[in-house]
TrEMBL record:
<dbReference type="InterPro" id="IPR012332">
    <property type="entry name" value="Autotransporter_pectin_lyase_C"/>
</dbReference>
<protein>
    <submittedName>
        <fullName>Uncharacterized protein</fullName>
    </submittedName>
</protein>
<keyword id="KW-0732">Signal</keyword>
<feature type="signal peptide">
    <location>
        <begin position="1"/>
        <end position="30"/>
    </location>
</feature>
Length: 454
């Protein structure tokens, strides 16, 4: 873990705080207060409060009691310790500038910026301070210093080539103790719809939630650990429900322990999940998708003194499992043969230990019979029509925990191919699909699917 050094320097006041803030003598802040306050005195605006705080190398608190707008790029410099926090009711700070980052720590600066209230145990929807970053830039760019995100804060919106929410780089430190990062989008190859970690930066996550973000290049809708020497340490909190992987490990390093849940994690062939401490709950703590599946490939390495446990993680490919080898978890295909499905075509029946494999191998016009309860991450059907049914027993197909997207998808036909169709047909027992996002149809399909439950 990296810790930033705080260097103090005199920063001349560019604007007199007296011109920006008007005090209200003897007015204790009551419930239902409106406006923006700097250290207990009402400011003319949100931007005025931040400008006054940034001009004075001391500790300042900006409290937002009602909706506000920002049209500039508010910067922090060495010596600043600024807290921006919510008041009694929900309030939104909206970035109205066409191409502005809402908050910026410039290169070479070492301030401390706190967002939210350290004392809160949860982020309440009715009292949260929401930062709406707009659609053109990241919410915050960190080129140094330390940012602490606490409960009571929601970061939403933000569209950038990388780091729609936070773009952490240049030896900066982002500590996520609480709050929520959602609705961010990364359009470039480095990803990080919620958070991008690049350039020797460190992100430590102890709590909070990163969800509902996206990466156009599937390079980490939630978090992208993009560049060499960048680090993402998860001690707690949840990263899940993001589009384009929850955590994408690029050239950086990813660490887990404690109560962390990382959702679907993409690992290049030369990268692993580093387990640096004991987990405090039962797994799986992440669903791993390696760049390639190969028996014997290492996907997790445990610190000395911690016993590897295959149940700590699951995989997107059901034909592989995890096995402990020293301080590592490795991929293996040595599965106990357990038949869960069969494919019938042309009068012949073939049995499979994986429903995904059965669907993939089922030819056009074939019948897939689900024989036992099983899990399924995803299965795509292209250029064929198939029937999915049951044997004599009631069976349930459950979506693999942590996997994203639909379980069953009809895909666009290839050139000269045919429109795909799935028919779910009751056999001797009842077929139940569980876990959400069960069926998705491609918009180009003229005939999408037939649901037949006689």
């Amino acid at each position: 873990m990296k810790y930033s050094r705080r260097r103090y320097a005199f920063v001349p006041a560019l604007l007199s705080a007296a011109l920006l803030v008007s005090a209200y003598p003897g007015a204790a802040l009551a419930d239902g207060e409106t406006g923006v306050y700097l250290d207990g005195a009402q400011a003319e605006s949100y931007d005025a409060a931040l400008a006054a705080a940034a001009a004075d190398p001391a500790e300042h608190t900006v409290t937002v009691y009602s909706d506000a707008e920002t049209a500039v790029r508010n910067e922090f410099v060495t010596g600043n310790t600024v807290t921006i926090r919510n008041g009694d009711n929900k309030a939104t700070v909206t970035q109205t500038g066409q191409n502005n980052i809402s908050l910026l720590i410039a290169s070479g600066q070492e301030p401390t910026v706190n967002l939210g209230k350290e004392e809160l145990e949860a982020t309440g929807e009715e009292t949260a301070l929401v930062f709406n970053a707009g659609a053109n830039r990241s919410f915050m760019e960190l080129n140094g210093g330390t940012v602490n995100l606490y409960n009571g804060t929601v970061i939403t919106g933000g569209t950038a080539a990388r780091g729609g929410g936070f773009d952490a780089k240049n030896n900066s430190v982002l500590n996520i103790y609480g709050g929520k990062i959602t609705g961010g989008t990364a359009t470039g190859t480095l990803g990080g719809g919620g958070v991008a970690v690049v350039g020797n930066a460190t992100v430590n996550m102890y709590g909070g939630e990163i969800t509902g973000n996206s990466s156009a290049e599937s390079a980490g809708g939630g978090v992208s650990v993009a560049e060499t020497n960048s680090e993402f340490h998860m001690y707690g909190g949840t990263v899940s429900g993001n589009d384009g992987y929850d955590v994408y490990v690029g050239r950086g390093n990813f660490y887990m322990s404690g109560t962390a849940y990382a959702g679907e994690v993409y690992l290049p062939s030369d990268k692993v999940i580093n387990v640096e401490g004991e987990f405090d709950a039962e797994g799986p703590h992440a669903v791993i998708e390696p760049e390639t599946y190969a028996s014997g490939q290492t996907v997790a390495v445990y610190a000395d003194g911690i016993t590897p446990d295959a149940s700590d993680f699951s995989l997107t490919n059901e034909e592989y499992s995890l096995t402990a080898d020293g301080q590592s978890l490795k991929l293996t295909t040595e599965l106990e043969e357990y038949i869960v499905a069969s494919v019938t075509y042309g009068g012949e029946t073939t049995e499979y230990s994986s429903l995904a494999t059965a669907i993939a191998n089922c030819p056009d016009g074939g019948i897939v019979t689900v024989l036992e309860d099983t899990q399924l991450a995803s299965a795509g059907i292209r250029d064929k029509s198939i029937v999915i049914t049951t044997g004599d027993n009631d069976v349930t197909v459950t979506k693999t925990p942590g996997s994203s997207g639909a379980m069953f998808t009809t895909l666009a036909k290839t050139a000269g191919g045919k429109t795909s169709a799935i028919e779910f047909r009751r056999g001797g027992g009842t077929l139940t699909l569980s876990g959400g996002g069960s069926v998705r149809y491609h918009s180009s399909c003229a005939v999408t699917a037939r649901l037949r439950m006689p």
